């Protein structure tokens, strides 16, 4: 074992910041991982000798391009297009596309870097990448979105392919956008292949994609509870959000006999005294997916449901918390309140919903805490399964896909738990996820030589 010098992490971060000025989100994403990896670097000098970490933080390729398009008034609009092809040691680059006004290179590099680890944890043959544009689809007509997507794909199509880089949807890129992007790719390349995931079921999508992230976070929670001889049955589960991830996390909780005691949206939250029923769940689905309503309407429709304006969902007594709404929605004070009120298990359905001090608190108090990198990898796992089904030109049934998802989430859990134990931090899924994700990529990079 070779000691890693005390100042290694500081020096590494100073160099990273100097080489990537202004990319604060990226600096933060790398900083979170470097601390977890120090014991691995100390035990295996090959990773230092091969300068694996230095190579991993440098994307293999970054593509930046102009996206000109014409709006409905006939005026020319110009947006920025990006694709960060981060790491292909394990397979074709794989990761989302984000269309949002806040998109810039630093944000995409941060998400792409995380994606390399998440994808590695799934054990599927997927490298990591991320892309998008500062285009904002909100408030744009379908025709404007189509013209933008066609212009974006006209350039992107030169760089992607089912064995090269397979983008998926993400914030601002749903079924409509994937359809327009796929149509343009097919037209330009004259080929119908699995170049994008998140496709419609009618033309190559996978069953269980909408459910995957929520189901996966619940499977991960169940595995963490098992390590303490426990299960979700009869547990009070607080869920934040009422969107795609929250809805399917709730559905799986109900199926496993847990009591869902909260839902929330950006206006407020509801508490459900006796736990949500299937009828309440159906109402949430209708409210959020069909009628664009508010969770407050659940309280109007059912006795035993109370609406509370504003934040505060984490102050509701529960045994298990599933943050499924948005980034940094659960802070250090919320984390303390959860512990005081009896919560022992937190599984992150959203991307990084817990602030860094909340994460630190959960780890210090030895709660069962599943970080998003591992706990919400169900979505990308199904994207991997969509790629497999596309290459076989065959579709698995709902049960077959769900069973595979369940197996993958168990494997991710076990890999994180084993890595944490191997490096002297049993039960620390944060370090475990970083280490397990890193080792698979790092060893593959060494196998493939200096490329
Ligand atoms: P949706 O847009 O479908 O739902 C988000 C929900 O969170 C909505 O109910 C929204 O309320 C609520 N919300 C937003 N901001 C807040 C806030 N500040 N406080 C309380 N509630 C809030 O998104 P998804 O369910 O698809 O995704 C949720 C998170 O999971 C996102 O961070 C996303 O990036 C991440 N994620 C999603 C994946 C997927 O497969 N869908 C995959 C991996 C990560 P309102 O209804 O008022 O807008």
- Structural class call reads alpha/beta
Elements, N to C (H/E): HHHHEEEHEHEHHEHEEHHEEHEHEHHHH
CA distance, first residue to last residue? 27 Å
Strand content: 15-25%
C-alpha-based Rg, rounded: 22 Å
What would the average pLDDT be, to the nearest integer?
96
Helix content: 40-55%
Helix segment tally: 17
Low-confidence stretches: none
Task: Catalogue the ligands.
Answer: NADPH dihydro-nicotinamide-adenine-dinucleotide phosphate
Number of strands: 12
Q: How many independent structural domains?
A: 3
Gross morphology is globular
- The name of the CATH topology of the largest domain is Rossmann fold
Structure overview:
- With 451 residues, this protein is α/β, with parallel strands linked by helices.
- It folds into three domains: 8-56, no CATH class; 61-191, 3-Layer(aba) Sandwich (Rossmann fold), CATH 3.40.50.10860; 212-375, NAD(P)-binding Rossmann-like Domain (Rossmann fold, 3-Layer(aba) Sandwich).
- The chain has 17 helices and twelve strands.
- The protein has helices at 8-19, 24-43, 45-49, 52-56, 105-121, 142-156, 175-189, 209-226, 244-255, 278-289, 296-301, 332-340, 356-364, 372-375, 378-392, 398-422, 429-447; strands spanning 61-70, 76-87, 93-99, 128-133, 165-168, 236-240, 259-264, 268-272, 305-309, 320-323, 345-347, 368-370.
- Strands 9-8-7-6-10-11-12 form a seven-stranded mixed sheet, sandwiched between helices. Strands 1-2-4-3-5 form a five-stranded mixed sheet, with helices on both faces.
- Strand 11 (345-347), helix 13 and strand 12 form a beta-alpha-beta unit.
- The longest helix is centred in the last third of the chain and has 25 residues, at 398-422.
- The protein starts with 7 loop residues before the first helix and ends with a helix.
- The model has no long low-confidence stretch (mean pLDDT 96).
- The chain binds NADPH dihydro-nicotinamide-adenine-dinucleotide phosphate.
- NADPH dihydro-nicotinamide-adenine-dinucleotide phosphate (NDP) binds next to helix 9.
């Amino acid at each position: 074992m070779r000691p890693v010098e005390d100042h290694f992490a500081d020096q590494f971060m100073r160099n990273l910041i100097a080489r990537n000025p202004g990319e604060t989100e990226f600096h933060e994403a790398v900083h979170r991982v470097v601390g977890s990896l120090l014991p691995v670097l100390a035990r295996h000098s090959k990773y230092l000798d091969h300068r694996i970490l230095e190579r991993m933080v440098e994307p293999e390729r970054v593509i930046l391009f102009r996206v000109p398009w014409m709006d409905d008034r006939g005026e020319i609009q110009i947006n920025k297009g990006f694709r960060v092809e981060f790491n292909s040691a394990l397979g074709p680059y794989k990761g989302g596309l984000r269309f949002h006004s806040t998109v810039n290179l630093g944000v995409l590099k941060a998400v792409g870097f995380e994606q390399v680890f998440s994808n590695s944890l799934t054990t599927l043959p997927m490298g990591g990448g991320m892309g998008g544009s500062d285009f904002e689809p909100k408030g744009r007509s379908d025709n404007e979105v189509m013209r933008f997507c066609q212009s974006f794909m006209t350039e992107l199509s030169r760089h992607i392919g089912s064995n090269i880089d397979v983008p998926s949807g993400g914030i601002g890129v749903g079924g409509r956008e994937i359809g327009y992007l796929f149509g343009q790719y097919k037209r330009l390349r004259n080929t119908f292949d699995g170049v994008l995931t998140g496709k419609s079921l009618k033309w190559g999508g996978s069953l269980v994609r909408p459910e995957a992230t929520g189901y996966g976070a619940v499977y991960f929670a169940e595995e963490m509870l098992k390590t303490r001889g426990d299960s979700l049955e009869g547990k009070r589960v607080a869920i934040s959000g009422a969107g795609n991830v929250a809805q399917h996390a709730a559905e799986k909780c109900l199926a496993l006999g847990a009591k869902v005691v909260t839902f929330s949206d950006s206006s407020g939250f509801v508490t459900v005294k006796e736990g949500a029923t299937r009828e309440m769940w159906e109402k949430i689905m209708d409210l959020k997916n069909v009628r664009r309503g508010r969770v407050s309407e659940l309280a109007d429709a059912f006795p035993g449901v109370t609406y509370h304006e504003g934040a505060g969902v984490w102050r509701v007594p529960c045994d298990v918390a599933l943050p499924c709404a948005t980034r940094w929605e659960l802070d250090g004070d919320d984390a303390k309140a959860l512990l005081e009120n009896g919560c022992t298990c937190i599984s992150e359905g959203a991307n990084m919903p817990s602030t860094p001090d909340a994460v630190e608190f959960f780890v210090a108090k030895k709660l069962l805490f599943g970080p998003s990198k591992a706990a919400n990898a169900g979505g990308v796992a199904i994207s991997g399964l969509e790629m497999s089904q596309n290459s076989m030109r065959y579709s698995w049934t709902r049960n077959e896909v769900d069973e595979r998802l369940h197996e993958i989430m168990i494997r991710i859990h076990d890999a994180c738990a084993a890595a944490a134990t191997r490096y002297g931090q049993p039960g620390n899924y944060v370090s475990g996820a970083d280490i397990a994700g890193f080792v698979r990529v790092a060893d593959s990079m060494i196998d493939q030589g200096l490329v």
